[in-house]
Design a protein that fits this description.
Blueprint (H helix, E strand, L loop, with lengths): L4 H6 L3 H9 L5 E6 L9 H13 L4 E7 L24 H9 L9 E7 L2 E4 L13 H4 L17 E3 L5 H17 L4 E5 L12 H11 L10 H25 L4 E6 L9 H7 L1 H4 L5 H7 L4 E6 L7 H13 L5 E6 L6 H10 L12 E4 L13 H9 L23 H4 L4 E8 L11 E5 L4 E4 L5 E7 L2 E8 L6 E7 L4 E3 L2 E2 L7 E4 L4 E4 L4 E4 L1 E3 L5 E6 L2 E2 L7 E4 L8 E9 L2 E4 L3 E6 L7 E7 L13 E7 L4 E6 L7 E6 L5 E4 L12 E8 L5 E6 L8 E6 L9 E6 L9 E8 L6 E6 L4 E7 L5 E9 L9 E4 L4 E5 L5 E7 L4 E8 L8 E7 L4 E6 L5 E6 L7 E7 L11 E6 L2 E6 L3 E7 L8 E7 L5 E6 L5 E7 L6 E7 L4 E6 L9 E5 L1
Parallel strand pairs: 1-2, 1-10, 2-3, 3-6, 6-7, 7-8, 8-9, 9-10, 11-17, 11-18, 20-28, 41-45
Antiparallel strand pairs: 4-5, 11-14, 12-13, 12-15, 15-16, 19-22, 21-25, 23-24, 23-26, 26-27, 26-28, 29-52, 30-31, 31-32, 32-33, 34-35, 35-36, 36-37, 38-39, 39-40, 40-41, 42-43, 43-44, 44-45, 46-47, 47-48, 48-49, 50-51, 51-52, 53-54, 54-57, 55-56, 55-58
Helix pairs in contact: 3-4, 6-8
Amino acid sequence: MSCSLRHLLLFGFAFAQCQLADAQTNEFRGMWVNAWNTGLQNASQVTTLVNQLRAGKFNAVIPQVRRRGDTLYNSHYEPHATGTTPANFDALGDLIGKAHDTNAGQYIEVHAWLVTYHIWSGATNATTPPQADHPLRLHPDWLLQDVNTNFFIGNQYTFDPGHPEVQRHTFNVAMDIVTNYNVDGLNFDYIRYSATTEGYNPVTVARFNRRYGRTGQPTTTDPLWKQFRRDQITGLLRKIYLNVLAVRPGVKVSADTITWAPGPVNDAQWYSSASAWNSVLQDWRGWMEEGILDLNIPMNYFRETTNATDYVNWMNFAKDHQFNRQTVIGPGTYLNSESNAIVQMRKVRELSPGGKSAVGVCGYDYNTPYLNGSGQFATFQTYLTSSPNAFDPLSPALFAQPATVPVMPWKVTPTKGHLKGTIYSDDPTNGLDGAVISLTGPVSRAQTNDATGFYGFVDLPPGNYAVQASFPGYASASTNVTVSVGTVATRDLPLGLQGPPAIVAQPESRTNYNGTPVAFAVSATGTAPLAFQWRKNGADLANATNASHGISAIAPGDAGGYTVVITNGFGAITSAVATLTVIVPPPNTRTVPLWNLGPGARSYLTTGSTERGLAFNPANNHLLLVSRAGASSSSVYVLNSTNGADLHTLNNGSGIIAGGTYAVNLVGVAEDGAVFVGNLTVNGTTTAFRLYRWANDNSGTTPTIAFSGDPFPSSAERWGDTLDVRGAGTNTQIVIGSRSGTNVVVFTTANGTTFTPIPVAISGGANSMFGLGIAFGAGNTLWGKQNNSPLRQASFNLAAGTGTVLQSFGPPLVVTGVAAIGVSTNLNLLGGVALETPDNFQLYNLPLNDAPSLIETNAFPTDNPNANGTGAVAFGGNYVFALDSNNGLIALQILPSTPLPGQFQLIARLPDGRVHLAWSGDANFTYALDVSSNLWFWSELAQVVSSNGGFEFFDVATSNQPQRFYRTRN
């Protein structure tokens, strides 16, 4: 019963009963903390927040860490919110560390509060988000529309819950927190529609019509359409709940649920008049009954002076509908005076008419704990912990004693298990939307899966079950699964299309070099079994009866048109023609293959775009490769450059390598053997570019931070896709190029260990001209490359911070498909990874004052797509190494160049009898000058060398010679 002063006057026995009820030591005591006011903007505010919560004997906090598609934590999917200090302040991480520190006081649970579907608001910014990578700017096609096709609704932009990509993105956002932060819970706010007039994104409407055989636009009141929209929200929550349970079973999933007036008192009123069910399509009663919420937090925001009955009715309804889960009541204390806020908080402890209780209370909110009490939480908490006082005449105080958070038995001592999976068609990434899943065993259940193909069943008695899935037009499939106590079993089911074969993906034409492997593949659906027969130029090929057909080393005779005939019991279909063109390149004259490694040859060489950086160490002839795959992710692998043998990986140190879209991406080595590795940041203003240094590439050497920050302040550019190193010690220079602008940054050092960035603005080029390839040239020059753009040479002036494009070279001199590049100024060579068909390595002569010329091409071990255009080229001694992401690594030995034959420019007798000879040839090459009197017998006259390609000699032995012939010899 309520323990107000009025009750005490009327019932003399009530006081003792209230004392008993109020002396709670096991209850949830929380506060929401919004991200727009104080509390989470910097480390000092977080410290104050935690200290005040402990002083108020609170044991839980729900901080808003996802506002509107922007975050107060380090997200892999969304940009950081503005307004924090520093700009990338990790409020969630800081709060967890302080709230969980039991040396400083009571453990406080941290439940990360996410705004689920609202993605931007007019209150935030009247136009669009400032961050280029904000999801609203990246995916405006995901926006919710109302029945009149409006996007900006109620001062909000909102993502449509029925769009499959919204479901995937929101799921990824949630799991990103669970897997990277030690949160105690996930709390979902605005996990609903705002009105029944919403949800009309064309993709969502098309899904509804396809499932129910409808056309046109459903009406706002259509019961089937309303239930379809409820199911979209339920499906997302179910997917998150089960996956959180599988990854971190202790994490509690909660939702802030709707309680608008009037408050229901029974199930009939829930379905007939409750706003949650009818107006915003949020079936939180069903979520509790199914068990896909651990904690229901109804936002019981009512003024005690005007809506006390609605407050009590909703509170009692929530208490009576906990099923096998828990409810925390969330009063809107900000709507009530200090005294009425406490009255409502005390009411939470009362039993419902059904004899049920809530497990605690969560007030909204920390910044305004009572009406007109902005910033007064420190004052408010004293009213909760000491009484009687001016606003609470009862004793003991509401939070007189510390309390522990009630345990959740289904998590601590579970008696049931769970099942999840995906129903898909041709591959696991292609989920079937709307498949029906039937479960039979100790209990029987059925479900329609979500837009991503996901299904899941919660709280199953342990035992053996049969799972069957069906989808219109597909053959049903079934499997068996054992459900064990406290675990989440996973069963995915592929369904085959019923009927004759249908080709999903045609075999593609290929152009390959002679001697390289080639494979054709087809993807088809249809009733199994499917039979395949490959043909060349219309004739069947022997033993070519699989979905793919490969040739290990092609020859010119393999060129032709390839097709595949696919048959089953319903019919046959013939694929489109895939043409194989065989290129027989001219023989190599400057390189000899040394060794190569294809994808799969090592755990860190994959087809998943994981390998990026490559560098040669001149101090010990080692080769260094950066990959994010393999036994240890984000590692630098050290190889023997002469045979490709694995040696070891670089030591990542303790907590040194961190931050960025990729923690490590490219590598370079100075002439003294010092190793430099850079991370990748898509925006240097919001995420630091970090440069790491190892003194050498020994396995025990630990890294240091050579630089961390924005290398080109205020430019907000992407850095780390390109990197090159030259020099040694204090003369070391490191250059990186922008992927999103025309700028470069040259790092210099005064001590050889820490580096200072010098921004250089390059004029006369185009955006991203150094985006995929950058290399130092001779002197203060650079070479840069981006796929589908010319090769550019630029000069730079570090003192002025400026540079200019000197010359550009496109086809036919340099193919536009060249992306990653490397330059050897010693050998006057440039190497490039060409993204062609097939991908290949191209070697170019690079004269000092002339255009580059192609010498030869070399194929990579495979020709898988390299959509990112990434790779690297490294010269070292008389070797060159090339890496093409997804296609492996090749090593080549560079042969001495064959010099040009000497071309005589002058043969003249001088007045003193001497003969003056002049010829042109290769610079720095020694030519033999031969002489003959009869063109039959020759003798060597001299050996002549020149540094500039111009040669001359004076023959003094010409007296008494009737005739004299000359020739040069290489």
